[in-house]
Design a protein that fits this description.
The complex is a heterodimer of chains A (500) and B (158). Helix content of chain A is 61%, strand content 9%. Chain A has 500 residues and is α+β, with helices and mostly antiparallel strands. Chain A has three domains: 2-155 and 176-193, no CATH class; 196-335; 340-481, 2-Layer Sandwich (Heat Shock Protein 90). Chain B is α/β, with parallel strands linked by helices and 158 residues long. Chain B has helices at residues 13-21, 34-42, 67-74, 79-88, 90-100, 115-125, 136-153, and strands spanning 3-8, 26-31, 46-51, 107-110, 128-131. Chain B is globular, with a radius of gyration of 15 Å. Chain B starts with a strand and ends in a 5-residue tail after the last helix. The relative contact order of chain B is 0.17. Classes of the chains: A alpha+beta (500), B alpha/beta (158). Chain A binds chain B through residues 53, 57, 60, 64, 79, 218, 222-223, 226-230, 243-244, 247, 325, 329, 416, 418-423, 442, 453, 457, 460, 462-464, 479, 484-486, 491-498, and chain B through 13, 16-17, 20-21, 54, 56-57, 74-76, 78, 80-81, 85, 89, 92-93, 96, 112-124, 133-137.
């Protein structure tokens, strides 16, 4: 009876359509036709509606990423990576993206994007096509591998010259050999790293990694695998009710097949982190999870046949994925937590004061007031130190230029948000009457405040201007979300009063 | 008579889960926004709330929270980041709106909140609990405990 119910449920589930599989495959292959294939699914069926929703989300991210790139602002790569993780890009966006790359002095990337646009531009306005051709012709091609991978741009192809001399051929062979040695080294270095090691060694990838892990955990693990925990348990003990069986079948075998969904998520990692970064090869946790997903995918027929051993194998594979989810939660938790404490502030103050003395600038009294204790923020310590160094340095330099008494004061506080989160504000006050043009400084590439705002934006932090008070002319406040999911003693301290 | 559980989410996954695994002892109802939830709660009879945290599929205009004010206060005026934040934390903001409207029913989230954040939510909104994943046994136990607490306090749901 149970087997019959399972057969009926499986038959009603069906699985992904060929059109959807083809559309997904085009996307995974980075084919410019992917967007049209997704659109062609229509919105009559569930797959089409899902594709439309993801296209809309992806489109918003792509447009935002292009706008940020064009403006030279932080977060462009993250937005583009988020778009790539959701769905294919509208080919019409190749043109503004090409222009943004050109304006950011990324001519090779821009050229490849212009070519992609022109290859897909049959329905585009003639003026746009003509402009794209002219702009491509004006480019001086020859920069950023991550952007390549994010936007799926292949390096520009050049036709081999028939006029190469023997000397040039020899030089090319030597250069090629060198390039191969470098490439092999790079591949080995990348393949040898786990996701945690990659995140630790390349902080700029951390937001993309956190987003990708979050998507994997939320969409695949939480709603499909962890959701069937009780049904798996009941099936394994032979006590599953028909409703539980149907629920299990729908979650594990309905919609996108689980192995295909898994491959889709791995593809998102590869697109964001690079084609050479194959998690199933480099990370034992992903390797084990991939095997568990494949095992579950392969159990469909045996479960339909009502084999008891299949239920037991399902339970074991499911357990591995539950453990994998816990490991991912731990990874994201530990990625970036840094203490924002007295030793760090003292270290920064000592370094900046030494700089001032070295430059022969007038004395500036720096005082450190009350700081929250035992508080961590979601940021690498090296990034946090960079932020504090720049903010304190600016205050000291400005105060040194201003009238006596020249003073800088640093303190901090934590406030509670309606979401239950806590926000840490580190305030740096100075006596300089010079105003801070925060927005202009933050946009000026290469300036200290540009680095600060970029680093803060990556972790949803920011800078605020505030009145100085107590004889200080003004305050610049560093704002960061507190990392609440750590093991520090203070995490167990009484909750804050509502202050938001 | 079974107690009524109001599921508040932007999709249907929670309600689907609740009907399969909790339907024998609870009557499951759905709301898809703070406004829908408030309207249903105003009609009375609901004993428990099961709230999704992330509302990434909800239209921006249906979200609780002032986008421009949130952008100005927390994200240096960046409305895209503020929108993502409001979506990601929407469940807690809906709970805030419901508490402000006087609805005190115990609330349960399926989310692995760190202990301190859960303590903060309790300090803000009273009876709030969380289970880390869709474990029906754990959810059932949490909801039973919440019902017992409400009964012990003698506070009939509004």
């Amino acid at each position: 009876m149970a087997g019959l119910l399972l057969v009926a449920a499986l038959a009603s589930c069906g699985g992904a359509s060929r059109e959807w599989e083809r559309a997904e495959a085009l996307w995974r292959d980075n084919d410019p036709a992917a967007w049209a294939a997704w659109r062609a699914l229509g919105d009559a069926g569930e797959e089409g509606r899902r594709a439309r929703a993801r296209l809309a989300e992806a489109d918003a991210r792509y447009r935002r990423g292009i706008a940020l790139l064009a403006a030279g602002q932080a977060g462009a790569r993250e937005e583009l990576a988020a778009g790539r993780a959701r769905g294919p890009i509208d080919p019409a966006l190749y043109l503004p993206l090409a222009r943004a790359c050109r304006d950011r002095e990324l001519p090779r990337r821009a050229a490849a994007l212009y070519r992609k646009y022109l290859a897909q531009a049959s329905g585009a306005a003639p003026d746009d096509v003509a402009a794209a051709r002219a702009e491509l012709a004006a480019l001086d091609e020859p920069e950023d591998p991550i952007l390549d991978e994010v936007v799926g741009v292949a390096p520009a192809r050049r036709l081999p010259s028939t006029a190469l001399t023997v000397g040039a051929l020899a030089a090319a062979a030597i250069a090629l050999a060198g390039a191969i040695v470098l490439l092999v080294g790079a591949v080995r270095r990348r393949r040898g790293r786990t996701l945690a090691a990659l995140a630790a060694s390349e902080p700029s990838l951390q937001p993309a990694i956190a987003l990708l892990v979050g998507c994997l955990r939320h969409e695949l693990l939480k709603h499909r695998v962890l959701a069937v925990t009780d049904a798996v348990r009941a099936l394994s003990s032979g006590t599953a009710r028909p409703g539980e069986r149907e629920f299990l079948v729908a979650r594990l075998y309905g919609g996108d097949p689980l192995p295909l969904a898994w491959v889709g998520h791995l593809g998102a990692f590869i697109r964001a982190l690079g084609p050479r970064f194959d998690l199933e090869r480099s990370d034992p946790g992903f390797r084990s999870a991939g095997r568990a997903v494949a095992e579950i995918g392969a159990l469909r027929a045996a479960l339909v046949a009502g084999e008891r051993s299949a239920a037991e194998r399902l339970r074991r594979a499911h357990e591995r994925l539950v453990a994998f989810d816990r490991a991912l939660a731990e990874l994201t938790r530990r990625l970036t937590h840094a203490p924002i404490d007295r030793p760090l502030v003292d270290e920064v103050v000592a370094a900046i004061d030494a700089e001032r003395r070295g430059a022969g600038a007038p004395e500036v009294a720096i005082t450190v007031g009350a700081l929250p204790e035992g508080v961590r923020v979601e940021m690498y310590r090296v990034d946090l130190a960079l932020v504090l160094r720049n903010v304190v340095r600016n205050a000291v330099v400005a105060a040194a230029r201003g009238p006596a008494p020249r003073r800088v004061a640093i303190d901090g506080q934590v406030t509670l948000e309606p979401t239950g989160e806590e926000v840490v504000r580190l305030r740096v006050r100075d006596t300089s009457p010079e105003p801070i043009a925060l927005e202009a400084a933050a946009r000026a590439s290469g300036r200290g405040l540009h680095l600060v705002t970029s680093a803060l934006a990556r972790v949803d932090g920011g800078l605020e201007l505030a009145p100085g008070g107590d004889g200080y002319a003004k305050a610049l406040v560093v704002r960061l979300f507190r990392a609440l999911d750590d093991d520090s003693e203070d995490a167990a301290a009484p909750p804050l009063e509502a202050t938001a | 008579m079974s107690a009524r559980l109001l599921v508040i989410e932007d999709g249907s996954e929670y309600a689907e889960f609740a009907r399969v695994f909790l339907g024998e002892e609870l009557v499951v109802e759905e709301a898809h926004s703070a406004a829908e939830a408030a309207a249903r709660l105003a009609a009375g009879d609901v004993a428990l709330l099961l709230i999704d945290l992330r509302f990434e599929r909800a239209p921006a205009e249906a979200l609780v929270g002032d986008l421009a004010a949130t952008a100005a206060r927390l994200f240096d005026g960046d409305e895209a980041r503020a929108l993502r934040y409001l979506q990601d934390q929407q469940g807690t903001l809906i709970l805030e709106a419901l508490r402000r409207a006087g609805h005190r029913q115990p609330a349960l989230f399926v989310h692995d909140f760190p202990p301190r954040r859960l303590a903060n939510l309790r300090a803000l909104y009273g009876d709030v609990s969380a289970v880390p994943s869709f474990d029906a046994a754990a959810i059932r136990a949490a909801l039973r405990a919440a019902l017992a607490r409400a009964a012990a306090q003698g506070a009939p749901p509004r």
